[in-house]
Structure formats: C-alpha cells, structure tokens
C-alpha cells in the first residue's frame, strides 16, 4: 500500500525516531585503532622510529657513548699522560679467564721484552707463570675529575705491580685504550658544538632569505654558491692556519668548532630557504602579519616548527661530517694540538707506513670513528622516516 501523495503546497511528512542514538554504534573501532587515533604526533613518530631496529640500536649506542664521555677519567685504566717507559710499542694484551684449567677471572699474563739488535724492534712475549688479575673499582693513577677535584678511582686497573694494555701502547708507552676514551670527549662534543653553530647560521640566514626574498636572498644565494664551489680541505687548511700558534688548547678547540660550523651552514640555509618560500604564502602567516607580529617571531614560532623534524634528521646526518672534519684537520697537524687529545690526534701516530706495518694497533682509533659515523647515519635515516609517520 503506497502512502498518499501530498497535495500541492502541503508539507512532506517527517518521521523522527525517539530511540536513543549511539554514534559509536555506526563504526566500532578496536582498541588498537582507538589508541592510534588518539595518539599525538610525537608518539606516532616514536612508534615508527622503534620499528627501525638499526636506527634504534644506533641511538642507544650513541646515547651510551655520550654518557661515557662524562666519566672518561673513571673509565680509563690510566691517566691520559701516564707513560710506561718499559713498555713502549707494546701490542695488545689478550684477556684470559682460565689458567691451567681453573677459572681465575679476567686476567692478563705478564710480559717480558727483548730487543732485536738487527731491526731495533722491541719484541714482547707473554709469561704464562705471571698471572695478573684485572682489578675493578680500584685505586690507580690520580686525576682531576672535570678539573674539579682530585681522585684515583678507576673502573678497571692492572694488578698490583702489573700492567694492563688491552689495546697496546704508543711510542711513549701511553695506553692506547685510555687515550681513545679521553679522545672521545673532544671528538664527540666538537660535532655537537659545531652543528649548533651551523644550525644558528643556517636557520637565521636561510630563514631571512626565504621569508623576505629580494636583494638579501640574491646576495645569500651567491655567497652560498661561492662557499660551496671552494674545495673543502684547502678551505679548512687556510682557516685553520689563521689561528695563532700562541693560542691555548681551549681556544684552538673553540676555533676549530667555529670553523666547522662556518663551513657547514650553507646546505641547511638552502633547505630552510626553500621551505620558507613555500610556507610564507600560507594563510596563518598572513594572519600573523596582520596582527603585527615581527619577522623573527613569524619565522621562529610559526614557520620553523613546521619542519623541525626535517631539521633534526639533518642534524644527525651533519654531525658525522663535523667529526670527520676535526679528525682530518688534527691528522694533518692543523687542528687540535696536545695536550688536548682527540681521535684525529691519535691517528697522527700512524702516519708512517713503517709504523703501520710494525705497530698496527695504532690504527685502533679509526674503529670508534667508523662506528660513530655509521651510527649517526643510521640514526638520521630512522629519524627521517619517522618524521612523516603517516607514510
């Protein structure tokens, strides 16, 4: 039976249900869907970053290293400048746990040295009768912790009257492992300080060029092209040579940091400029301008946060370049100078082919350099993928 057709001019009949309506009954979501839909942007990025196992492991590895550099003096078996004149160019001592079939714990065998009169090379041989247990949380060489107070507590020490050279010694009998641990403080922090200088210059100069454009943008682009056309190593050498030889090691350290920052801001400035050229046409930028906001506030509070995740990923990729730059300058003798110790300075011991042939353990400082560079690159890949969690 069909409903009657209303006459012309009469309203159509309406039917309204008085039953209660549950909007969630239309589309029922699982607990996992609710958790994802209610998650913040930062939480989504963290979930995606955790799925990148290599980047997560690299982040943990770097975090451990940066915590370790706070306690270099405690972790190193010897003081940075301790010389063992009876053990010059000693090869690494392997760690043993069993002696004559019995468990002794971590120990090394004592060594005896003989001099080859034909080649004047020192030959070291383990003495199986001399068992030297490794001590932990022990008293050893004295040091000033961060220059604040003097103590002699170490994580690991050689046996009383013994020696412990897990990575060998150099031409002055200094422990290579201890010097690598001390050098990590300079090589790792110079990357962070250098990238800070680079980011300040890149964001400020690139932000102003992209936001205002015009003549300032033209000048900045030509300056960037000039700097990028100059070969990096000769430019590093010329800038490093400008620093007076009378400067203290701390001033040399700060000078190298500023040089690395001054040479690395160009790529970031271009990236920031291109982003701001696109974002400055958005409606919220016009609204901020009409409300009287200054250019610095618009750039810092409205534009830069829009691509902060990209900047973070760029930083993690740029830090390895800073570390390699310091290592190259120090290796060439134009960077940091003793008594400051970095991984680049340690590698100056291995300049000669004959040294590498007879004492290959002097190349061990290259291992942490390679591991840190790879870790930063993997971390940067993970952060770059996590920056857009919806892909």
Automatic annotation (TrEMBL):
Gene3D superfamilies assigned: MetI-like
The answer to whether the entry has keyword Transmembrane helix is yes
One Pfam family linked to the record? OppC_N
- All copies of the ABC transmembrane type-1 domain together span 184-380
> Topology relative to the membrane, per the entry?
Multi-pass membrane protein
Stored PROSITE patterns = ABC_TM1
What the entry lists under SUPFAM superfamilies is as follows: MetI-like
User: Any idea which UniProt keywords this protein has?
Assistant: Membrane, Transmembrane, Transmembrane helix, Transport
Question: Which segments cross the bilayer?
Answer: 54-76, 186-211, 250-272, 311-336, 356-379
Q: What is its main location?
A: membrane
User: Which InterPro entries does this entry report, sorted A to Z?
Assistant: MetI-like, MetI-like_sf, OppC_N
User: What stretch or stretches form a coiled coil here?
Assistant: none
User: Where does it reside?
Assistant: Cell membrane
The record's similarity note reads:
Belongs to the binding-protein-dependent transport system permease family.
Q: What is this protein called?
A: ABC transporter permease
- UniProt organism field: Sinorhizobium psoraleae
């Amino acid at each position: 039976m069909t409903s009657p057709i209303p006459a012309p001019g009469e309203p159509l009949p309406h039917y309204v249900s008085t039953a209660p309506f549950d909007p969630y009954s239309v589309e029922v979501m699982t607990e996992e869907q609710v958790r994802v839909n209610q998650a913040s942007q930062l939480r989504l990025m963290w979930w995606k970053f955790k799925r990148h196992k290599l980047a997560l492991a690299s982040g943990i590895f770097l975090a451990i290293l940066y915590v370790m550099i706070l306690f270099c003096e405690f972790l190193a078996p010897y003081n940075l400048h301790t010389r063992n004149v009876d053990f010059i160019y000693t090869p690494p001592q392997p760690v043993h746990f069993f002696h004559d079939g019995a468990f002794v714990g971590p120990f090394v065998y004592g060594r005896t040295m003989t001099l080859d009169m034909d080649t004047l090379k020192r030959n070291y041989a383990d003495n199986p009768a001399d068992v030297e247990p490794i001590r932990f949380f022990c008293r050893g060489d004295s040091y000033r912790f961060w220059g604040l107070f003097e103590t002699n507590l170490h994580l690991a020490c050689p046996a009383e009257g013994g020696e412990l050279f897990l990575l060998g010694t150099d031409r002055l009998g200094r422990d290579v492992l201890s010097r690598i641990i001390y050098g990590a403080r300079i090589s790792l922090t110079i990357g962070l300080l250098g990238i800070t200088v680079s980011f300040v210059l890149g964001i400020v100069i690139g932000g102003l060029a992209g936001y205002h454009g015009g003549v300032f943008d033209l000048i900045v682009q030509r300056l960037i092209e000039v700097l990028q056309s100059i070969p990096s190593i000769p430019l590093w050498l010329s800038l490093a040579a400008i620093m007076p030889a009378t400067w203290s090691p701390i001033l040399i350290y700060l000078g190298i940091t500023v040089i690395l920052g001054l040479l690395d801001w160009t790529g970031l400035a271009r990236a920031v400029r291109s982003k701001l050229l696109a974002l400055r046409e958005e409606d919220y930028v016009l609204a901020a301008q009409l409300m009287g906001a200054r250019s610095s506030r618009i750039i810092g509070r409205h534009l830069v946060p829009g691509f902060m995740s990209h900047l973070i990923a760029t930083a993690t990729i740029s830090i390895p370049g800073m570390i390699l730059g310091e290592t190259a300058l120090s290796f060439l003798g134009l960077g940091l100078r003793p008594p400051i110790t970095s991984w680049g300075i340690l590698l100056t011991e291995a300049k000669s082919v004959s040294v590498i042939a007879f004492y290959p353990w002097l190349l061990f400082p290259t291992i942490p350099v390679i591991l840190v560079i790879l870790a930063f690159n993997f971390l940067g890949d993970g952060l770059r993928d996590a920056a857009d969690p919806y892909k």
